[in-house]
Amino acid sequence: KAGVTQTPRYLIKTRGQQVTLSCSPISGHRSVSWYQQTPGQGLQFLFEYFSETQRNKGNFPGRFSGRQFSNSRSEMNVSTLELGDSALYLCASSPEGQNQPQHFGDGTRLSIL
Amino acid sequence: GQNIDQPTEMTATEGAIVQINCTYQTSGFNGLFWYQQHAGEAPTFLSYNVLDGLEEKGRFSSFLSRSKGYSYLLLKELQMKDSASYLCAVRGSGGYNKLIFGAGTRLAVHP
Questions:
Q1: Interface test with A, best of B24, B32, B97 (most A CBs within 10 A)
Q2: Does any CB of chain A come closer than 8 Å to the CB of residue B101?
């Protein structure tokens, strides 16, 4: 079974631009969550999508948004990029069920110049 | 507020046993996860606890005490490949798949 696939792996942008990251979950997983990982803050929850609906949201500004498609693939978008948005963005998918773990992709490393 | 504490760094010797502690204060509790993350790689799932007690999985065990807001991950017969960051994460009252992560513990295993 293929794992969680994130594209692109690396991205360089400048301040003020916008970016879209993509995540394909494990086949059969309908929940997709996004996290931001930085050396100073660790892993921080951005949002979760299930059946094309945002089910949970973290404490990030409105510049961070996402969506999920009918095939469970998900995208996240960051607009008006700031230097502080430089981070590893991780996507995780899981099957439905209370004790099911999330499975992470390798992430997209975003660098803002 | 919500807070998860883990030691920042630990070192251990190959073949030894190491215990990584995690204490948490969160709004509600619906399970605790441990993940391993090698540098430059994705976190991988190690264990899940939702009831008090010990869960054993080969060389790895995880313990939970909900009344104390405390968990530990025990790694036995350490190998060099166990050098990684270990992340403690709690599913709070928000439920579903919103995990609150600790900053992680960097473990270095020496020969």
A1: B97
A2: yes
Residue/partner pairs of B12-15 with CB below 8 Å, 24 or more apart: B12/B78, B12/B107, B12/B108, B12/B109, B12/B110, B13/B78, B13/B109, B13/B110, B13/B111, B14/B78, B14/B79, B14/B80, B14/B109, B14/B110, B14/B111, B15/B77, B15/B78
User: Which of the four pLDDT bands, split at 50, 70 and 90, describes residue B34?
Assistant: very high
Contact with chain A for residue B55, Cβ under 8 A: no
Distance CA B61, CA B48 (A): 10
Gap between the Cα atoms of B23 and B47, Å rounded:
16
**From CA B88, how far away is CA B73, in angstroms rounded?**
9
List the structure tokens of A70.
């009918």
User: Interior CA angle at B61 toward B55 and B65, to 5°?
Assistant: 60
Residues of chain A above pLDDT 90, percent: 87
User: Chain B contact for A102, CB < 8 A?
Assistant: yes
